[in-house]
Specification:
This protein is α+β, with helices and mostly antiparallel strands and 262 residues long. The protein contains eight helices and seven strands, in the order H-H-E-E-H-E-H-H-E-H-E-E-E-H-H.
């Protein structure tokens, strides 16, 4: 596989991709406007302006307002992040999965914040939000035989654009549990964090198949015995996912200091 050559060609195509991205930006902004009505959080709002979720999770009115403000920041940042992600996907021949769900829903984000604060006594809402990197998130997918080359091209292209790689969790190397590559980034313009999951069709299927099990496992009311049972069920599903050639050796992109940064 001539990965280096393909990456070089991808980087030289950045200017063309940026032009393509300008067209994608309008579509991204239009969809962003729709997203505000797809996941209404009013159904979980309390009369005093707070938030109430499953398992006794809750946010005070002040904390709830802080999360709502963060959600607005995420929406604004997404408008410049999405064109770059979609251009990187096009350059690497990736399929973008679930693009209409690229913004984390209000209830999902609030549940995550409330859970973090409950599990870490003394933690404030700002600290909980600082630990969240998936308010804006994407999934790119390739067939097994093109996976490693595709990931390399997409990741190096994003890094060359100035997106800082903040997390690179390669779960193709583990014997049990989740299979896939989860990455975290920080956008150059807004500084907002976002996540990209790199999948194959089978690993994406396994993720979706285990989602409800994972959500139940994370609830504060789930007993240790039940949590262990849920983990075993997830392990059995992920055990069916084949590892694409070279996937276990994929590492975070390293961009030379002389590379153009925006």
């Amino acid at each position: 596989m001539r990965i280096t050559g393909k990456v070089s060609r991808a980087v030289t195509a950045l200017a063309l991709s940026a032009i393509v991205g300008l067209g994608l930006a309008n579509a991204a902004q239009a969809t962003s406007a729709q997203d505000s009505t797809v996941h209404p959080s009013a159904r979980s709002a309390t009369e005093d302006g707070g938030w109430q979720g499953e398992g006794g999770l809750s946010l005070s009115p002040a904390d709830n307002a802080r999360v709502d403000a963060y959600l607005e920041q995420a929406k604004k940042a997404e408008r410049s992040i999405s064109p770059q992600v979609r251009a990187a996907a096009a350059l690497s021949d990736a399929e973008v999965i679930g693009f209409d769900r690229r913004l984390k829903s209000p209830d999902s984000l609030k549940r995550k914040v409330a859970t973090s604060m409950k599990e870490n006594p003394g933690q404030n809402v700002g600290e909980a939000l600082a630990r969240i990197s998936d308010s804006v998130r994407y999934t790119l997918q390739w067939p097994d035989h093109r996976y490693s080359v595709g990931v390399t091209i997409a990741a190096h292209t994003l890094a060359a654009w100035g997106n800082d790689s903040s997390k690179w969790t390669n779960r193709w190397t583990t014997a049990k549990g989740y299979k896939g590559l989860n990455t975290g980034w920080r956008a150059p313009r807004s500084g907002h964090p976002f996540e990209i999951q790199f999948h194959t069709p089978t690993s994406k299927w396994a993720q979706e198949e285990t989602h409800k099990l994972y959500e139940e496992q994370r609830l504060p009311t789930t007993t240790p015995e039940r949590a262990k049972e849920l983990q075993e069920q997830q392990d059995a599903i992920f055990a069916m996912v084949p590892v694409p050639p070279g996937a276990d050796r994929l590492t975070a992109p390293r961009v030379p200091a002389t590379a153009s940064r925006r």
